[in-house]
Write a structure and sequence with these properties.
268 residues; three-stranded parallel β-sheet; five-stranded parallel β-sheet; alpha/beta
């Protein structure tokens, strides 16, 4: 269920052939209510919003408030995810349900967890689910570890975006292993989007400066003291990090200071 989008800027995020104006993707859980969810999402500028099919009403319960009313699919692209799934079979079943609820929607986020305490991905189950979903016609964005070999295998299966964790889901610890992320970035031919572990705006900026195509987050915004203000901060951080990456930072010079002002033609 893709919302119609105005013409993107010169540097859009392109996933499965669709261009998006924002490189920030946001989750819809953990907010006070759907009203606060909408305020934060709008402030973030995000065009893609994730929704946990097992935890959020998008039509499963006709008698309860629906996220679809707060965030109409005419305005946002929904990214149904498999949060809470611990087997490939459960994940596949959940996303097939999402496709029915969202009128044949193909773009999905796959995550298969291996541990209830750390929420670390089970890469074997993830690979198995990815193979089934791609074969079934889904456009699969996939949450995974920061293992570059697993990332390469998921891309070869046909996933449209690789989403390595920065640190554990909901931890707010930021990017703990930038070197592994760089290895994934150097080999990937599909968008690499940091997913999980972002805690504040500087974490998002660092991810973008590394060359990530985007950042997905939920807890960092929803659990902030002022979620709407943090959503605006994250928007600016992603934009600034992308600009810095495109501009190209100056080389690092260990023990080699360089004056900012000219050293010739001095006055007097």
């Amino acid at each position: 269920m893709n919302a119609p989008h105005p013409a993107p800027p010169d540097d859009p995020l392109v996933i499965a052939g669709q261009a998006y104006r924002s490189r920030l993707l946001v989750g819809t859980g953990k907010y006070r209510d759907f009203e606060q969810t909408r305020e934060a999402v709008v402030a973030s500028g995000a065009r893609i919003v994730t929704v946990a099919i097992r935890r959020t009403n998008i039509g499963q319960d006709a008698s309860a408030p629906s996220l679809l009313d707060a965030l109409p699919p005419s305005e946002f692209t929904y990214l149904p995810n498999t949060a809470g799934c611990y087997t490939a079979d459960d994940a596949v079943r959940t996303l097939r349900l999402a496709r029915e609820l969202l009128d044949g929607h193909k773009l999905v986020k796959l995550e298969v967890l291996g541990d209830k305490d750390t929420l670390f991905p089970d890469v074997r189950q993830t690979l198995a689910a990815a193979e089934t979903l791609v074969r079934d016609g889904f456009d699969v964005m996939v949450y995974t570890s920061d293992d570059p070999i697993v990332a390469r295998d998921l891309e070869s299966i046909g996933c449209v975006a690789i989403m390595p964790l920065a640190s554990l889901i909901g931890s707010g610890m930021g990017i703990l292993n930038p070197w592994n992320l760089k290895l994934i970035l150097d080999q990937a031919k599909v968008p690499v989007i940091v997913d999980a572990g972002v805690g504040t705006a500087s974490d998002a900026a660092i991810a973008m400066e590394l060359g990530c195509a985007g950042v997905l987050m939920n807890t960092a915004i929803a659990q902030a003291r002022e979620p709407v203000r943090m959503a605006r901060a994250m928007k600016l951080a992603v934009e600034a990090g992308r600009e810095a990456f495109l501009a190209g930072r100056m080389p690092r010079k260990l023990y080699a200071a360089s004056p900012s002002s000219p050293t010739s033609g001095l006055i007097g």
